[in-house]
Amino acid sequence: MSDSNDVRMEDWSRLQREVARLRVLVILALLAVIALAALSLWRKPGTSTRTDTILRAQGLVITDAKGHDRILIGAPVPASNDRTRKDDASDGIIFLGATGADRLALGQLPSLHIGGKTYKRHGGDSYGVTLYDDKGSERGGMAYMGSGRVGIALDRGAPPYEAVGLMVDDTRNFAGMYISYGDPKARGPAFELGTDAGSVHAQFGGKDGLPRARLNVDGTAKPAWQFNDAAQATKVAQNP
Question: What does the alpha-carbon distance between residue 18 and residue 151 come to, in Å, rounded to a whole number?
Answer without folding.
Answer: 82
